[in-house]
Design brief:
The structure is a homodimer of 223-residue chains. Chain A is an all-alpha fold. The first copy, chain A, has 2 domains: 15-57, Arc Repressor Mutant, subunit A, CATH 1.10.10.60; 67-212, Tetracycline Repressor, domain 2, CATH 1.10.357.10. Chain A has helices at 8-13, 16-31, 38-44, 51-56, 59-88, 94-106, 112-127, 131-154, 162-181, 183-190, 198-212. Chain A is elongated and about 60 Å long. The model of chain A is unreliable at 1-9 and 218-223 (pLDDT under 50). At the A-B interface, α6, α7, α8, α9 and α10 of A face α6, α7, α8, α9 and α10 of B. The structure holds a DNA duplex (18 and 18 nucleotides).
Chain lengths: 223, 223
DNA sequence: GTCTATAGCAGGATAGAC
DNA sequence: GTCTATCCTGCTATAGAC
């Protein structure tokens, strides 16, 4: 899957080190750390087997460098996108806060492939944390989570207490991550067809669901 | 983590094949398929290196058998729990449907360790699908998802259209999976302390959030 | 900075004795 | 059904020529 368009042409002009990082990210995101060999990475990068050790010392370090030099910057982009979108929206409402957040994750400047790589990498860390997890939590999740919580609290009534707010944020985050992360599952249900506008649809849904749940309920009516 | 209590004593009375499955499940769930070696599994099961090949043919098959003979039955338990809980609740309301669903996943008869193993295994498949994924989707997710969708539709107004309902179900499922699956992340935020009653708290939250979102909003008020 | 060659080892798998 | 011994492949990592 994901046609390799970027091969020969781009490779010529890119430094070995960068090509290694690109291919490593691609392969690690697709199949995880342990299922990918250094041989495979160097071959994909059209470089020598020894290149990984020369440029990064060892495999583990290459993996970490993928997070440091590729993943973190993209996470910053998402964060920036969230802040900007919120700033541009003027007087913020709950809708705007949630919408900005969801958009930053599901839409934004990244290409679909890039986003897929991005979220597959972090999904791997969520399931099987390595050293990179710590890095990512401290530098990305904690500040982002904090800001979102703060922004949301500002526009919510004071009747909503702190713990409830935290769980609310987790719930929204769960959807945002999940709709990126569980694509295989979603695809098997919704099917591959559907409108390409799916991202917008998802954002709308997340906003709506976050603000009012499944919709107007007819409680106590039964059957 | 997860003290090994079940070692020597239980091992004596259990068949090699079962011990292999137990230990395989434990190790695969903790670190994933590729990071675990057959040597490690047989050692943990206090059996011989050749035992895996004798009983299961190869490593991949052992992994699949873990899903077939350990994971699927537990998934059935969850499914049963959902159905029972719903039946017992008499005239169903949206609250009851969502609550039954969330409870089946987050509470229920499994031990905490068992549930952790269960969800770490499926998380791995969601991120890096193997042959087991197909099995699990067809035999568990599709029917469960279908039933939940159906039950929920019965108690929702007809104004909610089909696609919206599907997204609603995904959103609820996302929370339910996420609160099991992203424990490392949640733990780093909420901290390890807190009440042991956390499961009940989470179920309450999911129900509340699913039905009415973040809570009564003060829209258009700003700041 | 890139290459070849190879060390050195861990992995899955099997043959064959018991 | 369990064991030992062993094969063989594939891996990471490094030494050293260019």
């Amino acid at each position: 899957m994901a046609l390799k368009i970027r091969n020969s042409n781009n490779h010529k002009n890119e430094l070995t080190r960068d090509r290694l990082l690109d291919e490593a990210e691609d392969l690690f995101s697709q199949r995880g750390y342990h299922a990918v060999s250094v041989r495979e990475i160097t071959k994909a990068a059209e470089s020598n087997l020894a290149a990984v050790n020369y440029h990064f010392g060892n495999k583990q370090n290459l993996y970490l460098e993928v997070f440091r030099s590729r993943w973190l910057p993209r996470a910053s982009q998402i964060q920036q996108s969230f802040k900007q979108s919120l700033k541009n929206s003027g007087n913020p409402t709950p809708t705007m806060v949630v919408q900005s957040f969801a958009r930053a994750f599901l839409e934004g400047p990244m290409s679909a492939d890039e986003r897929t790589r991005h979220f597959k990498l972090i999904s791997g860390e969520l399931v099987q944390p390595t050293e990179a997890f710590e890095l990512v939590v401290e530098q990305v999740f904690r500040p982002l989570f904090g800001k979102f919580l703060e922004d949301l609290r500002k526009v919510m009534p004071d009747t909503v207490d702190e713990k409830q707010m935290i769980l609310n944020v987790f719930s929204i985050l769960s959807m945002v991550l999940y709709f990126n992360f569980a694509r295989p599952l979603i695809t098997t249900f919704v099917g591959g067809q559907e409108h390409n506008d799916i991202e917008t649809r998802l954002v709308d849904h997340i906003v709506q669901f976050s603000l009012s749940g499944v919709g107007s309920v007819k409680e106590e009516v039964g059957k």
